[in-house]
Design brief:
alpha+beta, globular, 11 helices, seven-stranded antiparallel β-sheet, five-stranded mixed β-sheet
Length: about 400
């Protein structure tokens, strides 16, 4: 089992400069490899350049530019080329499936914030000993950087990554672990229904309020974006001090909202995993749910369009993104695996329209957003609780149908 750990690094001024140069040079390598692929396809009879071909050129690139490319880890540069190769593989997969392709783009130096080292002690070394009060991580070309290790790393460290978030630097470790001891059985099963009015409703009638971190910070974010918009768009090296402060303020506010969402998701998922042996949830297609509505051409007026509800849908899309359902479900699955709990996703269709008492399914059973009233038997309850109960029943059916 693979687990990830993220720790705050505290580099010196000189180490911080070296880390920025490392990101800059890896970004240059990424963009150069992308340019080579574009040129080869466009100008050399649609020739495809592969990762193996570009990786074989690294030795010559490092020898040609020893002051920049030659000072960094060879394996980390290979990881950067693999990153580009994965972007192209995803592009071709989307083309074949008929999705919006999204051709890989060049990265600005401020857009390239991560460098991966595929193997510990190959261009990097994680130094953590029980008797040493200070933890350090060593990177080739940077040196030993102090790390604020707030919890022990369990298992063998496999990969090490450097990540920049605003002015902060983080080290991200992945460690291979044995399957931990499962939590004691509670004998409890639960179904959950994710929503906007309430972040979560369970089949026992409990609710978790939606914190709406993005909406609470919207006034500050709007003011920060307005202040940033007053500066003309420039490259990072050409920004004035005021422009740089405006950029950093926007990044800092967005980072705070992101950390608040993560904190809420971790705490909510941990509570569910500790209290229940089996958890069922809706198999949500969040990307499809948050798509903008297609335009409606007006047949009577060529070039004009009919109202399609785009404004109200945009508000709903913001609320879905603010809730962070996808992040929560990912965290829930990871915590359940560590605790020996079972999580099953079920088809969400008609879960809030089916009566849990008699089984009658009709659109009229849900007259309002919150109220459920069965037109067949008269059963009344909160609509989200009804949805959670139906999700639990469908989840138990799926569990029984699974082979042992």
């Amino acid at each position: 089992m693979i687990r990830a750990y993220t720790f705050l690094m505290r580099p010196t001024v000189r180490q911080g400069q070296a880390l920025r140069e490392m990101l800059r040079d890896h970004c240059s390598l990424y963009n150069g490899a992308l340019q080579e692929r574009r040129d080869a396809y466009r100008h050399v009879s649609k020739t495809s350049v592969t990762y193996g071909m570009q990786s074989a050129q690294l030795k010559d690139i490092r020898a040609f530019d020893p002051q920049r490319q030659g000072r960094w880890s060879f394996s980390s540069q290979q990881a950067t080329l693999r990153r580009l190769d994965k972007a192209f593989m995803a592009f071709f997969r989307r083309v074949k499936s008929g999705e919006t392709p999204g051709y890989p783009r060049f990265r600005g130096v401020t857009w390239f914030d991560t460098v991966e080292f595929p193997k510990d002690r190959d261009g990097c070394r994680w130094d953590s000993t029980p008797h040493d009060p200070v933890t350090r991580v060593r990177f080739q070309g940077v040196g030993h950087v102090k790390v604020n290790q707030h919890r022990p790393v369990v298992g063998k460290v496999k990969t090490v990554s450097v990540k920049r978030e605003g002015k902060r630097w983080y080290v991200v470790l992945t460690a291979e672990q044995t399957q931990p001891e499962p939590l004691p059985k509670t004998g409890s099963v639960v179904g959950i229904d994710l929503g906007i009015a309430n972040f979560l409703a369970d089949s026992n009638g409990s609710f978790v309020p939606n914190p709406r971190h993005g909406r609470k910070a919207s006034a500050k974010l709007e003011a920060a974006h307005q202040a940033l918009s007053r500066f003309p768009r420039r490259k990072a090296k050409d920004r004035t001090a005021g422009h740089q402060r405006a950029v950093e303020k926007v990044a800092r506010l967005h980072g705070k909202v992101r950390r608040q969402r993560l904190d809420h998701a971790h705490k909510t998922a941990l509570t569910l995993v500790r209290e229940h042996d089996f958890i069922a949830h809706e198999d949500l297609r969040i990307r499809n749910m948050s798509k903008a509505p297609a335009p409606k051409p007006d047949p009577g007026k060529p070039g004009s369009f009919l109202p399609n509800g785009a404004a109200s849908k945009a508000g709903l899309n913001r609320s879905i993104a603010d809730a962070g359902w996808g992040v929560f479900l990912t965290i829930l699955a990871a915590k359940a695996e560590s605790a020996g709990r079972q999580v099953i996703a079920v088809d969400p269709r008609n879960t809030s329209r089916r009566c849990p008492a008699c089984g009658h399914t009709a659109k009229e059973n849900r007259p309002t957003q919150e109220k459920f009233h069965c037109v067949a038997c008269g059963h009344t309850a909160h609509a989200d609780t009804v949805g959670a109960m139906n999700v639990l029943r469908a989840g138990l059916v799926r569990r029984e149908a699974q082979p042992a």
